[in-house]
């Protein structure tokens, strides 16, 4: 930058002069700055509008599906007994509900003890033992607690809470109150001593529970009895009892798993049986119209997705299928492979005639050839094995290779007799395929996919639908794998498949139905057998649960160190329990309410659970109180008001956006208004600046072609008609229309109003055709709204597709605007550089002038001094 001397000698206002001289450059720069500012405001306007359009697009996505309108409302005859909410899948009508039993959490009220405060210790209660070891068991989970004589009541509460219980000590009533955090039998709890000191500590705390005291002085639910029952006269006998219990547990769980698998297979076989019968009927009808079609179709079905790369060949009365391979014959023709009933492979070569656009197929012969491959995998043209050395050497040209028996390769022999591992030859057998000399073009070969499509197209729509459904069911069952059962086990997939197919072969449809449904006898038929097996499996599972104390041991591999350690741990626990069974003291005043599952009956079917909440067939039921043998009614119907509100909410959102678009499109022109420069802003008040800029911002999208295109697409979608049941419907069919240019408020002529809408002053006095239609024919309204939403969704989606100028889900050319903004920034910097360079040029000239004038003044002063 040049040194700038501002009129020190000349007295000129150099800065103002230079500024005036470069003003044309400054004006150009400000022009681009204003254009960039206007572009930035336009980007902001589009971003704001795009956010709202995308929100509408997202919201109407769900409106394309019936679930959005399939709204239900429900009422309960006695709301003190239950509350019910209906989902979209809940059936309309009245259902019967009985609440037989409420779920309860396990709850214990301790006996009164002499602890005056939460800080009272166990020692102060008379406990004199050492480490008191306790166990808190909830379901399958067991947690250990250790207390001591110095443990306070607060410590006990803290440990019980850490173990997963709700616990509190009330010093006013001098009792512990303990409960499960969740309801249900599985969430119930027991607190027992793991040693004598633990049992003693529980007694001192007033929470040693053994059930009700009997007339003989014993307790009805001694918590140590379960483990003590495994105790023998010696440790060896105890181990034997434990291992017998493990065997019994494993047998019960194994049998339960097997019976559950059999039950599942039987139920799946019912669907398979009926689908198999349907499929055979379709095959029969096909053969009646075109002999041999069924065999051909069955063969093509087995190919599945590989049909596209296969051909089918007529072979007498049957067909052979050849699948495309990656092999070629010696001439490079693609090979197709067929595997016969003896698992032998046969090949044909496909020879294409490009001029005639035809393909001929020829049988090929297979011939083995010895191949010699070097270390790079390249096949050698000349190589032979030297028989003179027991076939262990190979000669190639003048090189000799010796066989390495370890890997079978031949390695180059060095002069010193060692092997060069970098130079090797692999000898292998290669099968080559050649079209037989006497081969003739095989006739009757056609594309498997074309053959399949031809048969399928011969079916009418109803038959095609039945065929697709039946085939999917049959293939799913036949291809399913038994993970628990063996193929020869009773009710395995293989045995059930064979039984159904044999029944059909014997006496057709009637035999299969007899097999599936039975004779009406409770033990006959697949469904009854499945139910019986399921009940037996449930009984076994309950029996196994009764011996859950060996569950952990049973999960370990017998004879492993983990099994031995677990067995010894259980042995110690059994011995301790046996001791505590007779020595532990119980508090007779302690009361325990057992955890309880809930039980309800809906339409006569029993359901149980560990909570009071149920979700059944679209209904969410919250049981509040037992009804006994009396039933309460649940009435479910279409929520017509909900459907109405869904339509109204959609129109409200649409109206808000289309009104804003209309306002932006019809905005007044800003005329000659342009963004202000900093100098111009300095001459105006903040209010004047705001008013000026608002005038420009409001007009940015005026008559914008992109905005107009989006508006037109949305309006066209909303005006479209939908055909339902042969009749065409539009929004006006349901009393929904615009007010028109003459009656609508400014910029609201494209908004829709619902006749009879009490919130709309324009149409509240008209007949409510929409609600009437929802009440009379809700399905038609729902179908119409689905299609209308789909039309609008597609229209907006098309406008939001990604292009070279715009990003995905964007209705304006954001990429283009971003590029333009960047270009403005670059141009402005270029003009700033031009201004700076020009200023430097002028300031340099003025500096030279000032220097010259200074020298002139100095000279004049010198001359004057001679005359003074």
UniProtKB/TrEMBL annotation:
Keyword Ubl conjugation: no
Subcellular localization: Secreted; Bacterial flagellum
Main location per the UniProt record: secreted
Tagged with keyword Cytoplasm: no
Record keywords, A-Z: Bacterial flagellum, Cell projection, Cilium, Coiled coil, Flagellum, Secreted
Stretches assigned to the Flagellar hook-associated protein 2 N-terminal domain: 10-105
Range of residues in the leader sequence: none
Domain Flagellar hook-associated protein 2 C-terminal: 595-858
A single cellular component GO annotation: extracellular region
Coiled coil spans: 249-303
Any single biological process term in GO: bacterial-type flagellum-dependent cell motility
Assembly behavior: Homopentamer.
Family: Belongs to the FliD family.
Role, per record: Required for morphogenesis and for the elongation of the flagellar filament by facilitating polymerization of the flagellin monomers at the tip of growing filament. Forms a capping structure, which prevents flagellin subunits (transported through the central channel of the flagellum) from leaking out without polymerization at the distal end.
Descriptive protein name: Flagellar hook-associated protein 2
Natural source organism: Agathobacter rectalis
